[in-house]
Amino acid sequence: MKHPLRQHIEEIIELTDEEFDFVLTHFETDKKRKHQYLVQEGEVVKKEYWITKGCVKSYFLDDNGKEHILRFAMEHWWITDYESFVKQTPSNIYIDCIEDCEFLYISFENRDRLTAQMHKMERFWAKKSKLGRIALQKRILSLLKNSAKERYDLLLEQYPQLFQRVPKKLIASYLGVSRETLSRLDS
């Protein structure tokens, strides 16, 4: 059976056994418990994470301390603060674990080295970046044009497993509604 990261990469590019072994040497593993941070506001982000087990949320706190969820990420999804990671500037967001999690991660330096030495991986991350921008655009458009009920139904249709794994107050924050409104949408 193929390594899950190899299966993920090969959805976009093909790798030989030797190429995948080389790719894997650039990654390390990590585990975090529920409520532990991957990223905290103000720190320069040095790692990009690929989730092998668990679920995380990325969010920011407004001036009143209210949490606004930007995204969730589950198994076989990538997550980091991309602005901080790419520009090597302080993060504006938090990323923490909703569940106990396991990750493969690649450091900023290792990703630069890998893409310089293996152009296939440069193509892989370029494609993943494009797909991420498309998903972000869809999320923004949904927030701007869809009703709360439509956003709820779309999330339920696309990611039904989130509703089993994520507390309702976090789902409400992601949808931009109150917990009470979410309860009405859920009924």
From TrEMBL:
Record-linked Gene3D superfamilies: Jelly Rolls (2.60.120.10)
Any Pfam family hit: cNMP_binding
InterPro entries, per database record: cNMP-bd_dom, cNMP-bd_dom_sf, RmlC-like_jellyroll
Lineage: superkingdom: Bacteria
GO molecular function list: kinase activity
Keywords: Kinase, Transferase
Domain Cyclic nucleotide-binding: from-to ranges: 33-113
Protein name according to UniProt: cAMP-binding domain of CRP or a regulatory subunit of cAMP-dependent protein kinases
Taxonomic source organism: Aquimarina amphilecti
